[in-house]
Structures are given as structure tokens and as C-alpha cells.
Amino acid sequence: MYIKRLFIKTCKAAGSSNPYRTENLRECHFYRFLKEESLCGLPLPECYDFYSAEETGEFVIVLEDLSENYRAPEAEDLTDEALWFRCAESLAEFHAAFWNNSRIGYGELAPANEQQIERDICRNEKYLKDFLSTFGCKFSGRTIEIFKRALQINNVLIKDKNQDPSVTRCKTICNGDSHIYNFLISREDAARPKMIDFQFWGDGYGTEDLAHLTRVHFPDEFRTKIQIGLVRHYYDSLLKYGVKDYTWQNCFMDYRREIASMVLIPMWQYCCFGAGYEEWGEDIDKLTANYEYFNCDELCSGGSAAAMCQGRADTE
Fold first, then answer.
1. Are residues 26 and 164 in the same domain?
2. Which one of 65, 95, 120 terminates a domain?
3. For residue 179, is pLDDT > 60?
4. CB–CB of 22/190 below 8 Å?
5. CA-to-CA distance for 308 and 288, rounded, in angstroms?
6. 262: number of CA atoms within 13 Å, CB side?
């Protein structure tokens, strides 16, 4: 008799007081969306069933158990260049499946109106003020300047991502937190990694997920050694999986803007979820180093992404 192995995700004890309660419920929304799209063969665990009760915060997600053939990455895996390229290709395959999906811009994926956008921008400005008031003494003057410039760039991204759907191009569904430990890797071969944990999913630019991948666990030496090549591999994989009308220059510009926005993640971790300095303090150097490497200050002054793209590419 064949017995199917299952992986069950459900709410933690005291779920109503869990700061991630809303995001946990959103993962059910993702699997509902996936079922309605009738897509299969993507680099994800198969979802057999799900249930959520918004009023109580209860949820259950029944997933395929991949533990026999897949595992979580370990520290020594992170030095394997090929792993990062395989993860980037999994992202591209996933993003290509939803590229300019007809449902983006409607229902749960409807863009924010001007009032909502202004509220979001004002909220983030308050967050940064509170964040720097509490932790600014731990940062250099340059780091504080980078936080402020990252906020400016993120404000532009918020407006871009909430354009009217009739004029928005090159948007897709994103995982929203696709760091390396939200992938499962094959135990025995070079099979494509599987993506997991969709609590922060939503529509946006696929390069957001790629920037999450290289956010904090990406080895420092890979920043200059393979990162541009990794972005290029992601872009070429998008084309391989059927994406059209998206240029390398636009992809690279989108990636740089998302790299800048990643600097603000410690701010959101503290202000939205109460995460203390010990949980994100060590990430600051990596986030700001990535910001500097991609010359993200230039984005505040409208510099040429194409020129910077060519200049970096020539060094690869």
C-alpha cells in the first residue's frame, strides 16, 4: 500500500498575538490563487489542501513532503556558486509563469490608490525617523545617509508598483522573502531548488525576489565575483521561460532599485514585527555594501542605468 507523506503547516499557539499572523494567513491566499490559476510543474511543493479562518487567525496548509529528496541549505552549501544560479533560475521560472498575469491589478492584487500610497510613504517616513532615533547611534553617518536615500528610492518604487494596471508592464507574482533558506535543494543531483514560505507574496517586479536572494546570506566575495552574472542568468532564464518585451537594461535597473530597498528591511523588522538589534544588526554591513557596490545613490539623481550596467558588465 502506498502512503503519501505530507507536510502540515498550521498556526502557532497564541496565534492571535503572533506578529506574523496576517502574513501566515496570506500564505493560504497564495495557495488559493495558485489553485485558481491551475498551474502545475512550478518549482514549489505541491499543495493538496488549505483552510483559513480570518477572524481567529487559524489556518492549515497541507503540502507535499519533500524531505526524502530535498533538504534545507546548510552553511557549506552557500559557497557553491552553482547553487545560487540554480535558485535564480527557479525564481525566473516561477516569475515567468505569472508574467503580466491578467489578474494583477484586480481584487487582492489591485493597486493602491493615491491616498493609500501617500499613507504608505508617510508611514515609512515615520518608521525611519523612529528607527534612527532608537538605533542611529550605532550607525556611521554614511549608513544613516544610505537609509535616507534608500527610503527615497523605495518611495518611487511604491508609486511605480501601484500604477494603473493598463500601463503597468513586467509585473509578476513574487515570493516576497526569497532568501536562500526559503529554498529546498536536491539531496542527490543538480535539480532545480524548490521555493517555500509565501507569507509575503504579492505582485511586483521579479527582481525583488532576486534581491532578497542576495540580501544577507550571499557570501561577500560573490558580490563582485558573480553577482552581475547571477542577475544576467536570471534575465536569460526569464527569456528561456517565455518572457518577452523586457530588456536587460530594465532588468538591471529594477534589480538596483530593489537592492536599495533591501536596506530598509531592518527598519521594517523592528517597526512592524518588534525584531531587536540582535536579530538584524549584523545584516546592516551587507545591505549597505550591496547598495554601495551598485552605486544606488545614482538612482536618486536619475543616473543612467544603461551606462552603469555596461560598466559593471565589462568587469565580469
1. no
2. 65
3. yes
4. no
5. 18
6. 33
